Amino acid sequence: MNSTTPPTPWMPETTPIPRRTSMGLTSDSFQSVRFASPHRLLEVDRLMTLAASVGAAGAHGGMTQIDFDWARRVRRMKDELDMYVEVQTFLPREGEDPSVFEHAVKVAREAGASSLRVVCLLGRRYEMFDSREAWLQAVEGFHRQIRTALPIVEKHRMRLGIENHKDWRVDQQVELLRQYSSEYLGVSLDTGNNLSLLDDPEETVEKLAPWTFNVHFKDIALEEHTTGFYMSEVPLGEGILDLKRMVTAIRTARPDVHFSLEMITRDPLNVPCLTDRYWATFDDVNGSALARTLTRIRTQRPKKPLPSIRGMTNEQRFAYEVELVTRSIDYAVAELGL
Predict the structure, then answer these.
(1) Residue 93's pLDDT is what?
(2) Any idea what the CATH number is for the domain that residue 323 is in?
(3) What is the largest CA-CA distance in the chain?
(4) Considering the domain boundaries, does residue 8 fall inside one?
(5) Tally of domains in the chain
(6) Which domain holds residue 332?
(7) Contacting residues for 260 by C-beta, under 8 A, at least 6 apart
(8) Is the pLDDT reported for residue 43 higher than 70?
(9) Range 237-244 average pLDDT
């Protein structure tokens, strides 16, 4: 069944292949398609088509047509392809009528979504704030948004996962989850993001696993530079993460959770952890966390140059994305049982 969303003009036509993996895909695995959209979102219906073309099992993506006709078309497509669907949406915005968020929840449920993913911060903490006070003021706003969202998702029995999105350090996020203590509030667990906050990634996964509703599954490579390090998603098995340990932790705590591959093909991200501005918002990071991270960077150097899309056309970037996604699936099937 074809996507309900108009095609991207430059993208080659895709053809379904037999199912290869229990993993699905996140929308950021195909940023060339996502960023070509007027909304800069990759809708779950189009993502299901892409997932089927690489033998993946589900779609963890966005929605732009927030209406029930679209939702019913997505559910039919989901059922025909025998895929899971998880929907990325937004927390209630400050000053917005809560009914807007509630409508999105109801549409996602009608589409067959098993869980939602939201973020508190759209950017990166160390880039967006230059003082501890500014960060704490933002945190107050996050709590207001969560308090608005929680009774709505509880009413509709829809699991809401807050991603660890380069904002909360792991112990802060655990504290947040314990504070609200709701079976419908949990984590959209990204296996690599907390490296940017100098958390240990394997410990991050183990601490957040009991609250996990959905997974952005990735591997990461790091490369040192004069003011910090570069951080890049790489194909599974080609980075520094102990993926087997992570899969075991998640499967033990949440046996039914879906793993969605997030192989983001982009230029490396800069984490300026040796600058004063980077540290401005933190009061819970000490020298041992920095030393641990730098030691890992220096002892687990990349096996090959970090991926880059500099100078690529959309068509070239899409082909590169397909290559790296396929390599990740090959590894997940052969080495991780996914």
Answers:
(1) 95
(2) 3.20.20.150
(3) 54
(4) no
(5) 1
(6) 24-336
(7) 23, 24, 25, 26, 58, 59, 60, 86, 214, 215, 216, 217
(8) yes
(9) 98
